[in-house]
Amino acid sequence: xxxxxxxxxxxxxGKARVEALRARFDGLGVDGFLVPRADEYQGEYVPASAERxxxxxxxxxxxxxxxxxRTQAVVFVDGRYTTQLVEQVDGEVFTGGDxxxxxxxxxxxxxLPSGFRLGIDPWLHTGAEVRRLQKALAEKDGSLVLLxxxxxxxxxxxxxxxxxxxxxxxGDSYAGVLAKDKIATIAAELQKKHLGAVLITDxxxxxxxxxxxxxxxxHTPHPLARALVHADGSAEIFLSKHKxxxxxxxxxxxxxxxxxxxxxxxxxxxxxKSGAHILVDPELTPYxxxxxxxQSGGQVVEGEDPAKLPRAIKNTVELNGSAAAHxxxxxxxxxxxxxxxxxxxxxxxxxxxxxxxxxxxxxxGERMQNPLKDISFDTISGAGEHGAVIHYRVTTVxxxxxxxxxxxxxxxxxxxxxxxxxxxxxxxxxxxxxxQKRFFTLVLKGMIAISMARFPKGTRGCDLDPLARMALWxxxxxYAHGTGHGVGSFLSVHEGxxxxxxxxxxxxxxGMILSNEPGYYRPGAFGIRIENLIYVREPESxxxxxxxxxxxxxxxxxxxxxxLVLTELLTREELQWLDAYHAKTRDELMPLVEDAKVKxxxxxxxxxxxx
Length: 611
Fold this sequence. Notes:
The protein is α+β, with helices and mostly antiparallel strands. Strand 10 (226-230) and strand 11 (235-238) form a beta hairpin.
């Protein structure tokens, strides 16, 4: 199993650990300390050795930060995690904060005393974050104290060792573009901008540039590594040789000089002494590294990671690979849903369902000779009221049965060498109330609206986001998360810069893969989410129109629970879309399904509403 169901944190330790941290404040010359859910590489998924936020607070969500002062401990999370936070932390020790509406840099001026000295680990905060904190503290005549060592590490007994996941080569038949060509393209851009080098600190960008993959963190197949690409076309990669075997080391040797991770500081110092102008992404790069450049005489030139946008715009090989991976994943999903449909209510638990789906993916992968490499995130397997916890993670403690008369929300994904998948289906266990069907249909209307959207060049994610919410808004409802996130190619399931959300300013460009996942959540009762992956198509002319329009191509093909659809709430066009979607699902998956019972189930699940 790729997923663990163990309880990985315990709120009962929060008080003692916070007190132990506070006991170090005087010696450090600080009045407070920030603990982000981040590691030295600023990734979404972090190794066990960097799970400092979870160790201190008990909160295990993928985004958050705690500000510990002498008298307060505020855990800032976004809307996905408000319910989870209450369940996981000691409410007598920690209070909740709003990571989106009032993050620490906005909270500080209104709540901290004058002269406050805030300590941070400069490896865990980007340059942009440091500037925001410095500005906020300046309003209180306070100061930001950059600590040489993280005080949590000194009090964390039995801290896990740093990972040494094996590095593999992502072949041209999956990557589509040679690594040497990617390096050359970046070097040419540096020359145009009269820059000496670019510091690449995002492990996914390093993996993409060099066409390698790794196994250092859960569910995201990139190695923890950094790189320097120089304007002359040479490159350096800072990647432990404990992770590279003979083949990977020889491959990388043709592209770059390989050094140990701890050599990054001396190399930046040497490069900076000559006054080099080095491109740095302030939203991704630890402040500690930017500081090395400036303190050594170099010039930090801030700009976007040059691999970020090209990585997001998938080439034809990557898109074809993703489409194939989704069909394979669709077969596994159908086999799982058929199995689930045959089980009696109250006999299957959330963990049982999670294990059954992972098993289906593994078996289908073996049969189709494209193995399941990993899941792309911890499966969200929520029955009844657990479905209302947007990022619910089932454990042996929280596990419950799927009972008759309730909804079951299953959000899952897989990592295959040719693509990353992410899919959510909400299904009925027995007969459910009409109200739940109504909200399911309203969510479905939003998902269909995004699927059918046509939009001109220059359209941003924030421009499309209201389409997914409109039906819910008219019903006086909404959801506290974005509508869609970018997805990598056998990389992170959450990839930027593309998003469909209220705040996303990134233009949607051809080749970008996104999720399409509106939802509705009633705390303590039920949750609904329907999710497909889609990608942006090249603009096409519309008969009788004036300008070409982009559209989305659907990648995910798995039946949507027709029992939950109230057809009277759908327009004729929406119903036609749903029937056409199910017809294509049947046509694409049926030849790949072997079991007669599964074929029969798929046939019935994709029957049209209108004949």
